[in-house]
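Review session, final week

We close the course with one last complete record, chosen because it touches almost every idea we covered. It is AraC-type DNA-binding protein, a protein from Shimia gijangensis with 335 residues. Go through it on your own first, then we will talk.
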Amino acid sequence: MILQKKNERFLHVCNEISNKLGDAKMEQLVRRVGVDPKHRADADVTTLQEAQLLREACKSAEDISFAARIGSTFRQSQTLTGYIAKSSKTLGSAIENSARFYTLADSETNFDLSRTSSEDVMKIENNNGALLRHHRFQEFLVFGLLARLRVLAGVDFFPEKLCLQHEVGDHQQPFTKLAGCRVEFASEFTGIVFGQTTLDLPMANYDPSLVDYLSELGANMLAAHGTHRDSYRAQVEKHLIKQLPGRILSADEVADKLAMSRRTLTRHLTAEGTGFREIVDGLRFDIAKTYLKDGLSISEIAFMLGYADHAAFSTAFTRWAGQSPRTFQKSNQGH
């Protein structure tokens, strides 16, 4: 039994890029994100590099939904979480059991399942704030999760809706068509809302003894794996993005959320070679570029990034990019 297959997800993305764009383009894009394509199976690939590769792939394919399409083809997982999910009693218990150990496959991502009398909600949370600005990666995660859950259930069930925190302007249609259900952008969270009985679907390969064995094995692996603490920059970005759209937290507010004084936060960020204002500007600039490419209006982007008005955003963007947001959008829309 293979409990951890190195770079399984990254290799799947590479294969799908090759199928769509050709081997030469795939190798070019893999090299662009800092990975040697000849050693991609054994390289120490970070989740952020995966996210960057998906962004580059969508740009090269000129298809905003390409990452979601790649996710929808990632239906099998030869990891501990994949095996424990297959052996669970119901679809709901499969999610709960595998979520406990998902960090072994992806230390940057957590799943949280909440069940009430009215709805069942699975939220996807990124520990690394830098990943939240990679909208194509978020789409890849959600559509990939839906694909694997459908395989586990043995039926193409349809959730109430898929939820993504970012916007895509007028490009919702391909996502809705791909999912076969409602896709809600600018949502309060990223994840899936299920119908009332969906998570009660039985699993064909239920094996309680195997679940117990894998759970014990997973607990031991977690203990050996140790704990992971994000950089202070990543923690700041995470809190800033969670507050969007519409408002940027102050340094004092972020420090409070991190249970420290502003002076202590400043000291930690300085040690990492950055500062709070630099993080805010970099985050706004990166998200603004994505939204401009996706075709959102400048007024919408200004609001979503917490600017007082259109003019304030335009001034800031021109300072960062050396050109106005409108000029940037005209030359980059759809890329």
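Two points worth writing down before the exam:
The chain has 17 helices and five strands.
Strands lie at 109-115, 120-126, 161-163, 182-184, 191-194.
Good luck, everyone.
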